[in-house]
Design goal:
Largest sheet: 4 strands, mixed
Structural class: alpha/beta
Distance between the termini: 66 Å
Strand content: 25-35%
CATH class: Mainly Beta
Order of helices and strands: HHEEEEEEEE
CATH superfamily: Cupredoxins -  blue copper proteins
CATH topology: Immunoglobulin-like
Number of domains: 1
Number of strands: 8
Number of helices: 2
Bound molecules: copper (II) ion
CATH architecture: Sandwich
């Protein structure tokens, strides 16, 4: 028992000493350079690679025309991070509405003119239709 007491007390003293030295070191570096260390940790690795969805360099814009009661091209293939823009130019209004849970975010207003964009961040196949003309369908494949 006394041995245990002694060792735990020694441990406590050691912990105190560590804490004290840490505080001292902290105080000392507060005046000098804590900011550069923080900045260094937040810098992302330069070798991101293709798997990084946040790499904006490869992002592309793809346009789908909404005209003559059809989406054209009806099937487009994009890469993660790419934005698809639907351009509405028909004499009747249309919309772009995703099919299924996965495509829930694809949900444009009903438009006759103008455009609507959606950026794809998750790979997969996204099917969509026009809510007013369900025969109008298209697919976006995200690689
Ligand atoms: Cu339509």
């Amino acid at each position: 028992m006394p041995i245990l007491h002694r060792s735990s007390r020694a441990r406590a003293i050691a912990a105190l000493a560590l804490t004290a030295s840490t505080i001292l070191a902290g105080c000392g570096s507060d005046d000098t350079d804590p900011a550069p260390a923080t900045t260094a940790t937040s810098v992302p690795g330069p070798t991101g690679g293709r798997a990084e969805p946040s790499a904006p360099a490869a992002a592309a814009a793809v346009t789908v025309n909404v005209d003559d009661m059809a989406f054209s091209p009806g099937n487009v293939t994009v890469r993660v991070g790419d934005t698809v823009t639907w351009t509405f130019a028909d004499s009747v209004p249309h919309s772009v509405q995703g099919i299924g849970d996965k495509a829930m975010g694809i949900n444009s207003p009903i438009l006759t003119t103008g455009e609507w964009s959606y950026t794809f961040t998750v790979p997969g196949e996204y099917r969509y239709l026009c809510s007013l003309h369900p025969d109008m369908r298209g697919t976006v494949t995200v690689e």
